[in-house]
Amino acid sequence: MELAQIRMFKTVADTGSIARAAQVLHCVPSNITARIKALESELGTELFFRQGRGLRISPAGEIFLTYAGRMLSLADEARRAVHPDAAPSGPLRIGAIESSATSRLPRLLARFHARFPQVSLELTTGTGPQLLEATLNQKLDGAIVAIDVKRARLKRISMYREDLVLIAAESLGPINSAADLQGKSIFMWPEGCPYRAALERWLLNHGQAHPIISIASYGTIVGCVSAGAGVALVPKGVFEQYRKGSGWVGYEFPELTSIDNLFYWHENAEHHPARDAFVEMLKAEFSTVSPDPFPA
Q1: pTM for the full predicted model
Q2: Within the chain, which residue ranges are assigned CATH 3.40.190.10?
Q3: Which class in CATH covers the domain with range 3-82?
Q4: Helix (H, G, I), strand (E, B) or coil at 163
Q5: Residue extent(s) of CATH 1.10.10.10 domains in the chain
Q6: Which stretch of DSSP H or E encloses residue 68?
Q7: pLDDT at site 287
Q8: Of 225, 224, 218, 231, which is closest to residue 186 (Cα–Cα)?
C-alpha cells in the first residue's frame, strides 16, 4: 500500500470519476485505474462498483475513505514536522546522569518547555554506560554523561566542565590533604562513576587507600555527610544545590581536576529539530561549552 495509491483513491472518491481525478492529479486515467485495482487486490475487496463508464464507492470503500483521509493527513503532518524549517515538536527522549539531572537541568527544562510546548520531553536518569547504550540502541535521542569516549555510531559534543568539591561536615575539622581523610568514611557512587575514579586516583597518588561506601544517590550521600558520618567528592553543581543549611563545607584541590560532561547522540539521527533545539539551549546555558563536536 503506497501513499500515491491512497491519494488516487481519495481523489476519485472526492471527484466521482477517474477522468476528473486524472485532471486533478495530472496523470493519465489508465494509471489511476491500474493503481486502484492493485490497491483493491491488496485489500482483498472492491472499493468502487463499476457502473458502465461510471463508478460508485462501495461500503468497504466508504470505510477505507475515512482511513485514507487520516493517513494522508498524518503523512502531510510528518512532512511538515521533519522539514528543516519546522518548529520543534513531538517526543524528545533525553538521558542524563543524576548530577546533571538534579543540579544542572531543572531550570533549563522549564525554559525549554515554555519555549517549545509542542515537544513532549521525557528525561531518564542512569549511569553513564547505561545511557550510552540506550543512545546507541536509539532508545534515547541523546544523553548527557561525564564520560569522554569514542563509540562507534555515536557523536558527541562537550557541554560543560564540572569542577569537583570534597565535602565534609564542619565537625570533622579541616581537610587540607588526602592524608586528612584517614579514618573517615567516604561515600561515593558505585564503581564506574568518573567522579569516584577521580577521587581514587587522587588518593592513590598520595599513597592513601581508603574503603569507599557505594551509594547510588546524591541525596543519600549528602545526607550522610550532613550527619557527620563521613566525606564525599561531588560535582560542583551538586555542592551548590545542597550547600545551603547543609552543615558541611567544601574543599577544592588542584589535583582533583574538573571533568567534562558531554552530550551524545546517534549518527543516524542527524536531523532532529527538538533535540537540536535542546542542545542549543544547553550551549547557551553553559559558558564553557566547546563550539565544535569532537571527531566521531
Answers
A1: 0.71
A2: 90-162+259-285, 164-251
A3: mainly alpha
A4: coil
A5: 3-82
A6: helix 59-82
A7: 59
A8: 231
Q: How far is CA 189 from CA 93, 98, 155, 226, in A?
A: 24, 10, 26, 17
Each residue's pLDDT tens digit, 47-74: 999 877 778 899 999 999 989 988 987 8
Topology adopted by domain 164-251: D-Maltodextrin-Binding Protein; domain 2 (3.40.190)
Report DSSP state, residue 267: T
Instruction: Calculate mean pLDDT across residues 35-45.
Output: 93
The three grid cell numbers given for residue 30, joined into one nine-digit string: 489508465
Instruction: Name the one residue in this structure whose C-alpha cell is 545551603.
Output: 244
Task: Pick the closest to residue 31 from 19, 43, 40, 42 (CA basis).
Answer: 19
pLDDT digits (tens, 9 = 90+) for 101-111: 999 999 999 99
CATH of domain 90-162+259-285: 3.40.190.10
Helix 273-285, helix 106-115: angle, nearest 10: 130
For residue 178, the one-letter residue type is A
pLDDT over threshold 50, residue 283: yes
CA nearest neighbour of 236 among 248, 251, 223: 251
